Amino acid sequence: MKQQHVDVMILGAGLSGISAACHLAEADPGLSYTILERRDRIGGTWDLFRYPGVRSDSDMYTFGYRFRAWHGTKILADGPGIREYVQETAGEHGVVEHIRFGRRAVRASWSSEDGLWTVEAHDEATGESELHTCRFLVNATGYYDYDEGFRPEFPGEERFTGTVVHPQHWPEDLDYRGKRVVVIGSGATAITLVPAMAEEAAHVTMLQRSPTYIMTLPTHDPVSVVLRKLRVPAKLVYDLGRRRNIALQRGLYAACRKAPRVMRKVLLAGVRAQLGPNIDMRHFTPSYKPWDQRLCVVPSGDLFKTLRSGRASVATDHIETFTEKGIRLKSGEEIEADVIVTATGLRVQLAGGAALEVDGRPIATRDHVIYKGVLLDGIPNLAIILGYTNASWTLKADMAADYVARLLTYMREQGHEQVTAVATESDRAAESAMGDSLNSGYIQRGDAVMPRQGTRAPWKILNNYYRDRRALSRSPIADPALRFGARPGAAPAGGEPRSAQADSTARVA
Questions:
Q1: Contact, 501 vs 495, CB < 8 A?
Q2: For the chain, first and last CA: distance in Å?
Q3: Is 483 in contact with 419 (CB distance < 8 Å)?
Q4: What is the pTM of this model?
């Protein structure tokens, strides 16, 4: 069995993993690191999803990295463009040669005796197993299962004679030209699929149990277009757009939370103005308050244009059963279909499904509270990179990666080899780290595996860019909630007896 050792092991070569590697390389070029990536290419989510029209659901000025400008003017970029951006970032920062593709991490085990993580990986091309040891482990795989999307069992599915697909595993040879399509769902994936498929399908029906708040954005950022015509440097255009859009994102979210009735009227008025008189507003009038679930955005109102054209329609009802020819609703209506797309969401998991252990004991991530949204309490030298649920994922993921790099630099400078976040009982809360303000289905399903957040800083999840920036990027690393120590057998730092340092870390592990 092959065995290798590095200072830092990163799981995942998507947006978060590449960010973590870039920050590490910049902060401490002497650190050795490896990225284990199960897929054969860089990109993570943006390599996995291949369905028609796949795009970001956040603007690219905030979805892009802080340290590398996105030079396009498209507000919502397409999937291939995002994957290319991540690939180019990795290439420019020398990350690609550190990636071991086709490796699925199956187990990560911490040894207090050795002061090391051992990661068991499976080479999916050869079937061989590998062991990798590291001082510090960074989980940058995101929070969902790449093997299986969330897929409810619908009555009568076996009777349907057409094709059923899930967007997470889109068949390359799926031909829907001239066919009747039903897209089950009302989230970001569904509202992307409907206008994209309607260009070639005979008709597309978006079938939803309940409506979602939808807001229209321009296809191209009008301010950036003007600035580029004036030959303003691209980096400055990006920085200005990023600062502006961070403020707009935060302002919109805050307004929705503080004045939900007012913002509900504003959002619905925007939809009504684009739908025209022939489409029933009940299909776009949610029963919940704005931002109780993630707000969906569409470029230049493409969904509404498609609905007005008659090439697509919306049905709001519950499914009674699949039939031979389509779907029968609780109302008795039957929607005929040749292709049914189940845009029903994601399955949530951490570490790409790898089992986590400390000294042979399994780790239940749900039983641990998370420090600054990055470190699990009681578990040495482990970071989890998670993004925002109420803003662009990368905004938070980028800051978390920067924090990990700062933490490791501090540890090197201070002569520390281990760090453990230590929470008290009064710090612990019952809410998931994904937040208690959103009630989306995937957040509720993720409650079973996600770490807990705390009752107060630094354990409370803020979901506020400006406050997180202070906590992660600007505040000192030294903190009473963090316990530092040397690796067993290492020379002690600051003259403290080696046994005392090793014991203090082992106790909280």
A1: no
A2: 28
A3: yes
A4: 0.91
In angstroms, what CA-CA distances link 379 with 105, 366, 375? 19, 13, 8
| Distance, CA of 399 to CA of 388 (rounded, Å) | 11
Cα torsion 355, 361, 366, 368: sign: negative
In the structure encoding, which two tokens stand for residue 330, read together?
Answer: 């609780």
The C-alpha atoms of residue 171 and residue 475 are separated, in whole angstroms, by 47
Q: Whose CA is closest to 465, among 369, 373, 371, 350?
A: 373
Which of helix, strand or coil describes residue 405? helix
DSSP 8-state class, residue 37: E
CA distance 93 to 360: 36
Count of C-beta atoms within a 10 Å radius of residue 303:
28
Q: Which of 388, 394, 387, 372 is nearest to 67 (CA)?
A: 394
Q: pLDDT by residue (tens digit) across 139-153? A: 999 988 888 888 889
Q: What number of other Cβ atoms are within 10 A of residue 93's Cβ?
A: 19
The arrangement of strands across the sheet holding 326-329 comes to: 319-322, 326-329, 334-336
At 350-400, the pLDDT tens digits run 889 999 999 999 999 999 999 999 999 999 999 999 999 889 999 999 999
The residues with which 340 forms a beta bridge, in sequence order, are 164, 182
Distance from chain centroid for Cα 298: 19
Residue 236 CA to residue 218 CA, distance in Å, equals 21
CA distances from 363 to 106, 351, 509 (A): 14, 12, 11
Residue type for position 60: M
Q: Does residue 504 sit in helix, strand or coil?
A: helix
One DSSP character per residue, 303-334 reads HHHHHHHTSEEEEE--EEEE-SSEEEETTS-E
Q: Which helix (H) or strand (E) holds 411?
A: helix 393-414
Give backbone dihedrals phi and psi of 8, rounded to 5 degrees, phi first: -130, 135
Q: Backbone phi, then psi, for 172, in 5-degree steps? A: -65, -30
Asked whether 486 and 112 are in contact (CB, 8 A), the reply is no
- Measured distance CA(73)–CA(424) in Å, rounded: 47
497 Ramachandran zone, left/alpha/beta (phi>0; psi -120 to 50): beta
Locate 206 and state its tokens. Answer: 């978006």
